[in-house]
Amino acid sequence: MSHLVYRKERVDRGIKVRSDDIFILASLRDLSYATLPKTLAIVILLLFPLLKDLVGTYWESVLVTTIVISLLALSWDLLASAGLVSLGQALFFGVGSYLTGWLSRTFALTPIMSIPLATLVGALLTTLILYPVLRLRGIYFGLITFALPLLLSRVIEVTKILGGTEGLNKIPPLPNLTTELYILIVVLLVCIYAYRRLITSDYGLVLQAVRDNDRAVMAAGFDIQRLKAQAVFLAALPATFAGAFLTHHFQVVGMQSFALDYSILPLTSVIVGGAGTFFGSVLGAFIMIPLSEFLREFASLRVVIYSLLLLIFAIGLPEGIFHFIRRRYQQFERMTALEGESDKRGK
Amino acid sequence: MANEPILRIVGLTKSFGGEKAADNISFELVPGQALGIIGPNGSGKSTLINLITGFVKPTAGQIFFKGKNITGIAPHKAVDLGITRSFQMSRPFYNLPVFKNLIIPLSSPRARRSRGGKYGDRDETAIHLLEEVGFERDSQVPYKDAGALPHGYLKRLELARCLSLEPEMLILDELFSGMSMSEIASVIPLLEKIKEDGCTLVMVEHRLTELFRIIDKVIVLNFGQKIAEGKPSDVMKQEAVMKAYLGSEVVESA
Amino acid sequence: MAANFLIYGLVNSVVLMLSALGFSLTFGLSGVANFAHGGLYLTSGFIAWMLIHYLGLPAFVSMLLTIVITGIIGALIYRIIIMPVRGIALSEVISTMALGVAMIEFFRYIGFVTYDFTLPPLVAGSVDIVGVSIDYQRLVIVGVGVLLAIILWFFTHHTKAGLALRGMSQDEYTALSLGIESDWAAMLSMGMGAALAAVAAMAILPLGIISINMGYDVLLLALSVTVLGGLESTAGLIVGSLLVGYAMVFTSTYIGPQWGTVVYLAAIVLVLAIKPSGLFGKSKELEERV
Ligand SMILES: Nc1ncnc2c1ncn2[C@@H]1O[C@H](COP(=O)(O)OP(=O)(O)O)[C@@H](O)[C@H]1O
Ligand SMILES: [Mg+2]
Prior knowledge:
The complex is a heterotrimer of chains A (347), B (254) and C (290). With 254 residues, chain B is α/β, with parallel strands linked by helices.
């Protein structure tokens, strides 16, 4: 005699938001279900700078840092899509920072000129710096990106170029916090959109193929060295921009720009949020940076906490929060009856 | 001019450490000819292919393709010249649908050039190529993840990947191994057609009976050295070849 | 002057070799690039200090105990942190790096940053060698370094266990069929690597105060020396240490004291850019691959 046993079952909701560019939507309800999270996030982001009186300038400047780290995390994510795992996002950040500082001090450029210039030239420069080591894979590439920002900051220290340990100050400021935030938000959204488009295109497919099996990509007639260089350039753009922007925000640039923080924070963001989707890395930054502000009073314990979070997520939830949430969102649980299961158990 | 060799190899040598995986190999191949390369395991067949396609740099010797010295060329440049190869161990992009696997070679500079820069219908081209190598068009197979394919299908996907690059010289490394008899039988007419269309074929194979139906000439390798060259029927009668082959057969079945 | 240069260059080289020994051993035997190496080095220094100052143990006993404790910590790190991500080289690097940073910054947080934090030298005093005054502790370092290098070389090349471990790193499959369990072997090599980090700390730290940033420096020094020598080569480690060691002393003497740090970082970058398998590396594939 068999009685029913229930167990939880996960069911995919009918919407296919996962497929790259094909949306099969049955109803308006599905449509809203698919687009709601994105729309909501964008609306909140766009409204945030207007709520100055409500949230206070402190949290608005936290948003500046958050977006800056998001950009570094996005950059990391694109590099990783092409199989280049960076342990030193500070390289891009620092190069962007110093370039804008040097440009505005030497040529008296305004931020409108120096930020884009530093972004472009910085991306070009870092691509050139990394070009000889693009053939390295895995931990070897990681090693070099780990060492490079430290090396550059030591070189600045001992040669006393670019202001040495003092850094460069009196960098021209940006107009005001609200404008700054809108610039950052727009850049962030454009970057996410562009990267998503890029990675789902045929070109993006090829980049990911370099990561999965570079030999097959070579056999298909691609110059993988060149592909990787292109990936580095494209990935460097938001990161050098982030450096340049923050330099004008604080109106100084120093060796701090090459510090380990700018390598570890984006890395933690990506690992916590989840690599490979770009949404995940941004989500990670939006969790990590505000969190670290709450932990401000613990001073250097903050770094300990980041590192432990990085550790816990790297081991325990390697797919990251975003994939986890998305799966929950796209599926629902229900109880299903299983017949006969009880018989087996009864014996 | 018709008889100018498409491929000319002179004294090609490659040593890994002390061991010579290719030892002073020379031969020529005229356009449209089909060459078989046979030899026991570890005799240097794959290494020879790697040398021709630029995946391994030779220690000594030269390689000429259509009269041009391509010794030590970068692999992608070899593809640009029309030399396409398959891999013995086909490693597809497991987490991509089968047809998407072909989008990668179809987006390459060579494919874009030779297919006239057509951008729009790459998916269609991919499906078409899969059909050519024996995937059923109306089945779900081309849309499944490549990781779920059985071995025989993987080999045919590998062949489709090569064909997508419209090769002038097609080098196949043990295409038949892992395929069933019926799969091989279905691929042979395709290979014959490729040959008829003027593509030079180079095939490394262990399945000699099937191989000899396609090729015009065979070279036999043993310990990195070319020990025989000629018409398949003649070569197999040579004592050295029988020795090398019998020797390896014994080792293999032991 | 020349004698000074030769002797201090040698001492510095041995310091580097000692610092890198644990990292290199773990990498060579199990393929794990342990980025917590510097963290372990620093931690062992503070463990010894705590044993001496909180428990009042004699210095020598504390140091021996520390080496054992650090070894156990290393093995535990393998068990808890590496095993879940074993085989994914980058996850190994990321998680050990995170752990290393956490260890280092933890000591900064609890305030282990003053001049009180020193370890006593095993032997105090100094001696004149060909007109160069050198303290006994530096001689101890050279002695320990040379001895360890010999022992380790003997262990990995001439003992059954060592050969088995090495075989494992080259071919896990064969080793498995020989009945060696790879996780135990790797755990052992992590433990040994950590213990060696502690040995290095016990020998080197008495030269000055224990400063937090040493945790980072030691990791970078170890990376520099091993990358230059070739990541899994014993001879490479020695030659790499001598080259970097003398280069550092040379630049700090003749160009400027801060240039030493530039030298070893530049070594990492240049070697990886020019000859990634290092001077003696066997990872030919790094270069064979086009
Ligand atoms: N990258 C390499 N490094 C070292 N030895 C290699 C390498 N590739 C091939 N060999 C050696 O060269 C010899 C020939 O190998 P291979 O060309 O694969 O033989 P085949 O394809 O005929 O079975 C073998 O002994 C093999 O071990
Ligand atoms: Mg082969």
